[in-house]
Amino acid sequence: MDVVKRVHIVPLGYEFDRVLEPICDQRADLVYLLEHPTDDPDRVVPDYREDLVTDLESAAATVRRRECDLTDVYAVLGEVTTLADEHATDSVYVNVSGGGTIAAIGATMACMDVSTDATAYYVEPEGYAHDPTMAPISNGAADVYGLPTYPIESPTRDQIAIMGFLADPAAWDGYHEDRTTPPKKKDCIEFARDVGLSFMADRAPPESHPGGEDKGAFRVLDTHVLDPLETDGYVEIESVGRRRVITLTEQGENAYRAFRHKLEYAENYPGE
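RESULT FIELD:
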């Protein structure tokens, strides 16, 4: 029987006690530190960072450091949901008080995703410092609060797969040869058949229909994929002549980055 581990995920900025003390108190088994990329010229690593890592390694069984753009809410959202998914059978806790405002928003949103079984918590400090590069931005941990979450629905795997198809013109080969225009619904249906998306599982191949493509395939594409994505602002659908073409919006590109880990057929999916 697998042992359930206590896993903590911490976007790491200029904190020390607010990171360390909850991990010590709960005797975490595994800690993920999300640190801003080393190649960012604006990145400032505080002098006490390695001391914190040393203390964490003494307090937890394992500490893993991962780069994550803490100034990008979708990067944090994606990293936290990915890690939570990898530890679906463990108890996952996310410290939203250690990496700054943007990281806190992304981490909290990740815990709101109904498919992410993770608990967000906030650490109230005892006091604050002035220069976070010389000393941690706060000191002490007066209390730890569990945060209320309001469930949000992330895109389904089928929806994420279609978003990935729309995002990558290289994936259009064999489906949509003209890369100067967006793909059509027919292109999405053919792609969905080839990679085995669930909404196409019961649809007969086009050659079995006298008029070509099964009209029902267009209805299930709309119902299960495109209509929800359009409602959420992830895709735009417009008429170009007699065709209905589909474009992934900037918001859709961000959502795809955040949730692409949900795809289960990496070997077959273009770009994975």
